[in-house]
Design brief:
There is one protein chain. With 165 residues, the protein is mostly helical. It has a single domain, classed as Alpha Horseshoe (Serine Threonine Protein Phosphatase 5, Tetratricopeptide repeat), CATH 1.25.40.10. It has helices at 23-35, 39-52, 57-70, 73-86, 91-104, 107-122, and strands spanning 8-12, 15-19. Strands 1-2 form a two-stranded antiparallel ribbon. Strand 1 (8-12) and strand 2 (15-19) form a beta hairpin. Helix 5 packs antiparallel against helix 6. The longest helix is centred in the C-terminal third of the chain and has 16 residues, at 107-122.
C-alpha cells in the first residue's frame, strides 16, 4: 500500500524547507492507521500526539480504544481513566470504560460506568448563548419568522357539499 508522507519538501530556488505536520494532521494519520487495523502504529502515533499535547481529548480517547482493540484491557482502562480526568461527564468516556471493564471481567465496575454514561446522556445542554458558528450549520432547522401575521376572515364561505342540510 502506498501512503502519503506528511513531511513535504518545498523548493524555492536554492532554498528548501520542511513543512512539519500539524497536531491535527498527526492525529488524522494515527486515525488512518486505526481505521485500517494497524493498531500498533496507531498507538505509537497517538502517544506521540499526547506527548506534544497531554490535553488532547480525542487522541486520549482513541488511544484507549486502540489498546482495547489490540486486547490490552488493563492499559485501555488506564488510558480511559486519563480521558475521564479530561472530561469527567462525557458520555463516550464512560461507555468506553464500561466496555473495557466488561471485557476484562469486572462486571460491577462496568455497570457503574454504564450508569454514568446514561446519566451523562441525560445531562442538560449548557445554557447561554450558542458557541460561535453554531448557527451556521446547513442541517440546522429553519426558524419561524417572528413578524406578526394578519388574518382576514373571508367575506363568503365556500359551499360545503359534504355537509347535510
Amino acid at each position: 500500500m502506498l501512503r502519503l508522507r506528511r513531511n513535504i519538501f518545498v523548493r524555492y530556488g536554492a532554498m528548501s524547507k520542511t513543512i512539519m505536520p500539524t497536531p491535527q494532521e498527526k492525529y488524522d494519520d494515527a486515525m488512518f492507521d486505526f481505521s485500517t487495523g494497524d493498531f500498533d502504529s496507531a498507538i505509537r502515533k497517538l502517544k506521540n500526539v499526547l506527548a506534544e499535547d497531554a490535553t488532547n481529548f480525542d487522541a486520549q480517547l482513541a488511544l484507549g480504544m486502540a489498546l482495547y482493540r489490540k486486547g490490552d484491557f488493563a492499559a485501555a482502562i488506564a488510558e480511559g481513566h486519563k480521558a475521564e480526568k479530561l472530561r469527567p461527564h462525557e458520555q463516550l468516556v464512560h461507555t468506553n470504560l464500561s466496555l473495557f471493564y466488561m471485557k476484562s471481567g469486572d462486571k460491577k465496575t462496568a455497570e457503574h460506568h454504564g450508569l454514568q454514561a446514561r446519566i451523562a446522556s441525560w445531562r442538560e445542554k449548557p445554557s447561554g448563548p450558542p458557541p460561535e458558528g453554531a448557527g451556521e450549520s446547513e442541517l440546522e432547522m429553519v426558524k419561524p419568522k417572528l413578524e406578526p401575521q394578519t388574518f382576514k376572515t373571508p367575506e363568503k364561505f365556500p359551499d360545503m357539499p359534504w355537509k347535510k342540510k
